[in-house]
Every structure is written in C-alpha cells, then in structure tokens.
Design brief:
Layout lengths: L1 H17 L19 E2 L2 E3 L6 H7 L4 H8 L12 E3 L15 H10 L21 E3 L11 E4 L5 E3 L4 E7 L7 E6 L4 E11 L6 E2 L4 E5 L8 E8 L2 E3 L9
Antiparallel strand pairs: 1-2, 2-3, 4-5, 5-12, 6-11, 7-8, 7-10, 8-9, 9-11, 9-12, 12-13
Helix pairs in contact: 1-2, 2-3
C-alpha cells in the first residue's frame, strides 16, 4: 500500500513538471543537487518515508539504493538515517593509455546526432507527420515538440519502458501518457484521442500506445516531450534523422 502511494506521488510530481508545455507557470522541478532533504550526497530520512519513496523522488531504483547502503530486505529505514545516493567508489588500478587503434575505434563508435541509442535507449519517432512547433529552451510554452497528423493516427512509444501514467488528469494535455524508460529518462505523449495502454504496462520501442487526437488542444496533433532527470530536453537530437 505504501509503495503504491509513493508511486502515485512520484507520478503527480512528473505531471507537474510536464505542465510547462502548455504555457502555464512552470511548477518547480526537483534538481538532484538541490533536493531539500539531500545533504552532501545523502538523504536524511523523515518520519513516514520509505526506501521506495526516497529512491523514486531522486529517480533511482530502490533496490540500487538498498545495495549502495547495505540495507537488506524488507528494506526497513528509520527517521534521521542517512541514505547514500550514489554507489560507493571502488579503487581501481591505474588504466593504461589506450593504443592508437583503440582510440580510433572508440571515436568511430561514438553516437552521432542521428543515432537512435542516445541515453542507452533505442529511440524512434513517436508518430509520422510534419513538425508543427519545435522545442525552445527559452520559451516555457515549448518544452517539447508538436507533430501534426490525422485523427486516429498511431502514436507509438519512443523507447522501451513502463507506463507510469495513462489518463486525462491535466485538462491542457487531454489524454496523456507518461513512460519511464530508466531512472533518468521519461517521455510524455499528449492530446491523444484514445489511450491503448494503462499504468504499469511494459512497452517496447515502436509499440502503439495511443491514437492521435485533439483532446486538450485546438487541432489534431501529438505533443511529445523527453525529460532527463525531470528537466525537458530537445527531443529531436535523440530521434533518428527523417
């Protein structure tokens, strides 16, 4: 029961972050370096908190955090306890300088703007259609991209992950889907006509998750966002060239 409540709180926080795309005042975005209860790489446990809720608030898997802190099942913690928020450093022997051949290979293997595995994920376009509005770092109303299309057109998951929200709780976004891809990346899909997945569903890249629509907006389109550590980034460099 506590885990479900914590998950719900975390999803609501993500929804508040996403509100920037509609031009409304931006809700505060949690920055890992300025979290109110983080102190020099630790989180100080407060009454009522669980390891799951703390881990989720920082974007980590609770099992990872338990491993970093040596906390065994059933993962009991207590108020005032310091929770380490990064893996303990392990000393390694000095690495040898790579050979020229290795340096050349490494250079050739670096992802380019057209690569689809940025962020260790395979990204695909969430739908076909013209780019109506581009991302803008300066404009709080353009924290994603808008893609035009026809009513009922397939909308697909841009990368594999878990559906953490599927509903219409935010009027400006109509029928909205949010997918968690890993502890760093989330993606959001707004204004859908019909939602084809529910909370907790696992999806693969390219799997249809909705039908395009115009809910919460004035024209048929998909509003698409990629969030890195809770902050909006330009989706286009993550997607393959058209």
């Amino acid at each position: 029961m506590v885990a479900k409540a914590s998950t719900r709180v975390f999803v609501i926080a993500i929804l508040l972050v996403v509100q920037g795309c509609a031009g409304a005042p931006l809700a505060p975005v949690s920055d890992l370096s300025t979290h109110p209860h983080r102190s020099r790489g630790y989180h100080i446990v407060r009454s009522g908190e669980s390891l799951y809720s703390i881990s989720s608030s920082y974007g980590y898997d609770y099992r990872e955090v338990a491993r970093w802190n040596g906390i065994p099942k059933p993962y009991r913690i207590y108020p005032g306890q310091k929770i380490l928020l990064y893996p303990r450093r392990v000393r390694h022997a000095p690495a040898r300088a790579p050979s020229r051949a290795r340096r050349e290979t490494a250079r050739s293997n670096k992802p380019t703007r057209a690569a689809t595995d940025v962020g260790h994920l395979r990204w695909v376009w969430p739908t076909r259609g013209p780019l109506l509005h581009a991302y803008s770092a300066e404009d709080p109303g353009k924290k994603g991209i808008d893609i035009g299309g026809r009513s009922g057109q397939p909308v697909v998951a841009a990368a594999a992950g878990e559906v953490v929200y599927s509903g219409s709780g935010l009027i400006r976004y109509g029928k909205l889907i949010i997918i968690k891809h890993n502890r760093i990346y989330f993606s959001a899909y707004a204004h859908n006509q019909k939602l084809l997945v529910k909370d907790g569903d696992r999806v693969r890249a390219g799997q249809q998750i909705a039908d395009m629509g115009s809910t919460g907006t004035t024209r048929t389109m998909l509003h698409f966002e990629i969030r890195r550590n809770g902050k909006a980034v330009d989706p286009v460099p993550y997607l393959p060239k058209r």
